Amino acid sequence: MAAPQNIVQIPKPDFAHRLSVSTSPTATFHSPPASFSGALPTRAAPKQLKPFNTQDIKILLLENVNQSGRDILTGQGYQVEALKTSLPEDQLIEKIRDVHVIGIRSKTKLNEKVLREAKNLLVVGCFCIGTNQVDLEFAAKHGIAVFNSPFANSRSVAELVIGEIITLARQLGDRSNEMHRGTWNKVSNKCWEIRGKTLGIVGYGHIGSQLSVLAEAMGMNVIYYDVISLMGLGTSRQVPTLNELLNESDFVTLHVPELPETKNMISTAQFEQMKEGSYLINASRGTVVDIPALINASRSGKIAGAALDVYPNEPAANGDYFTNDLNTWGEDLRSLKNLILTPHIGGSTEEAQRAIGVEVGDALVRYINQGITLGSVNLPECNLRSLTLEEPDHARVIYIHQNIPGVLRKVNEILGNHNVDKQISDSKGDVAYLMADVSSVGIEDIKEISESLEALSSRVMVRVLY
Ligand SMILES: NC(=O)c1ccc[n+]([C@@H]2O[C@H](COP(=O)([O-])OP(=O)(O)OC[C@H]3O[C@@H](n4cnc5c(N)ncnc54)[C@H](O)[C@@H]3O)[C@@H](O)[C@H]2O)c1
Ligand SMILES: O=C(O)CC[C@@H](O)C(=O)O
């Protein structure tokens, strides 16, 4: 990290506007909107902390991050380059060497090979829910914070699944395709109402539980399976095993994260457990379903239909890529009856993307400018109240370090020569995060603190903001 240079004042962000678009509870973290100010005790204006000139912060946004997020970052004066697609690994490596911040969605793979090259990288913003595309452990060990938006698109996914349940039950995809080809095929055979049918939800988290409420409102019975014990909403009921869920459900829908334990979670043995003529929906991650097994189950009539939004391999950009070159079974899959295929659009609504842009954009600004890690998925979550404009000789020291005995003593020996106004420290696995606000420090003191911390053997990353 470059040595601290000078202080730059930037306009106060428009928090009131942001609160109006974000649906995430984390938005409550922000200062209250201006309309509240009369009712609250007067507080000194927060000081914007910067490690260097704002325009020196270089940000690369990939995969068409929403304008709401881009506006927040450009509004800070950072240099923002925004691309519509993800990048092939060689180009990504070339670009990531230079940037302090990268913003991605689900396609960009930030694996160890890529992150090793990211010598200036401070923070990753996943403008989505899933963070399986990032090597979180490697990032943490190198002091790179990762943020996501944990539930701003949950409702959009749940609504898509509701649409798919009816679409499958009524064979709407096939009827529509036939009509597009000029064929009139009026049938009721094996077309059903969803009222009174059983929906089995695998993974009862943000999306699964939201879906549960919507499905019950439409007259479905809901059961769910999860690795943790959770209270069911409405009259939904948790079942103890995946097999029990598969045995009882007319529709099975998957909402688990991509993990080693969820890889091919639905394969030949699980299709055998499903009811004859039932349906499968996967809007979680492509690795969760064994697609060749699904092709067999569909051809044999064991399942009456399926809807897939996610695939083991997905293209980096829009275009004619969904072929056997991408996934060897691509054409077999496309030939199946009553199969809805969508290009990973579960969270792709205006509402969700706008809210995600705001939530992740704000988290990045808080981290870059103030070192606050609230909401980070890989570093301990630490917060200190803001320094104010009335505290001009203060600096915020951030020391990301290995979580080993004796570190705090050494850090406090360095900080002990100064007045530490407030301090917080927390750890997560092998990595710990310390923030301290020190007063009455000038540029020379800041330089000395920074260099002394850099010299400690436990150091992962040092930032001094002032
Ligand atoms: N298609 C899309 O566009 C889209 C959009 C958002 C999220 N997603 C995917 O959906 C997944 C779920 O999202 P969410 O917000 O509901 O996540 P969440 O973390 O809120 O819920 C996941 C649930 O799965 C459970 N779980 C984990 N492992 C399990 C296992 N082996 N068996 C059963 N249950 C298990 C967890 O305990 C948790 O309750 C995300 O991880 C993401 O991959 C897809
Ligand atoms: O927008 C995306 O690319 C990912 C959407 C979804 O899978 C998520 O993880 O939020």
What is the chains' assembly state? Answer: single chain
Strand line-up of the largest beta sheet:
8-7-6-9-10-11-12
How many DSSP-defined strands? 16
Overall average residue pLDDT: 90
Task: Describe what this molecule looks like in 3D.
- The structure is a single chain.
- This protein has 466 residues and is α/β, with parallel strands linked by helices.
- The chain has 15 helices and 16 strands.
- The protein has a seven-stranded parallel beta sheet with strand order 8-7-6-9-10-11-12, sandwiched between helices. A five-stranded parallel beta sheet has the order 2-1-3-4-5. The chain has a four-stranded antiparallel beta sheet with strand order 14-15-13-16, covered by helices on one side.
- Helix 2 packs parallel to helix 13 (350-370) and helix 6 packs across helix 8.
- The two termini are 15 Å apart.
